[in-house]
Each structure stands twice: as C-alpha cells, then as structure tokens.
Write a structure and sequence with these properties.
This protein has about 110 residues and is mainly α. It has one domain. Helix content is about 50%, strand content about 0%. It is built from 5 helices and no strands. The longest helix is centred in the N-terminal third of the chain and has 19 residues. The protein is globular. The protein starts with 5 loop residues before the first helix and ends in a 5-residue tail after the last helix.
Length: about 110
Amino acid sequence: MVDDDGERARRAAGVAVAMYVDVVGGVDPIGAIDPALLARVHDLVAAGDHAAAGQRAPSLRICWDARGGCRPGGGAVGIRSRRVDFGQPLGVDGLARGLELLARRVLPQLS
C-alpha cells in the first residue's frame, strides 16, 4: 500500500491485512496468529467494521503480509529488501495513483 501519508497507508494496509487474516489467518504457514486475535478480527470483519479490524492487525503482520517493507519513520521500501511484490490494492486512492506513487517514490529506491 502506498500513499504520501504513511499513517494513512498503514491504516489502509491494516484493513487489507485484516480481511486477508480473516480468511486464511488460521492456516497461514508464515507464522501462528493468536487465536483470540483471529476470532476478534473475524467478528469485526463479519460485522463490517473493517477499520476496527485493521487496527487489530499487528504492525509486523502489516509489513509482512502487505509486503509494505515498512521501516521506522516511513519510506516505502527498506534498504535491505531482497524482494518487493506489488499487488492489489496498490494505493489508498486507487490503481492510477498507486502506480504513479510507485513509479515516482518507490522504484527509484530500488536502483
């Protein structure tokens, strides 16, 4: 998830991760997720409260699952990233804006 506002991007990524965790979190081979957290996220997603579910997504899971490459203080991609995946959703404000931000702000960091 990319955006000029890192906090906004993290909130949107949290929502996307929460919906992912609701579907496959119990069988995710990457690592175990606390069953109580899974149950709470499931209940919030089922109730349509995606923002609250996104707030339950631990920061580490956001960086891992959303492939955000988070680093302290912002920045889209950590210097030590060996792999960067670009998938949907790309940007908070849609595909076109996400692609523009990737081209202007993220890809130059990879060279």
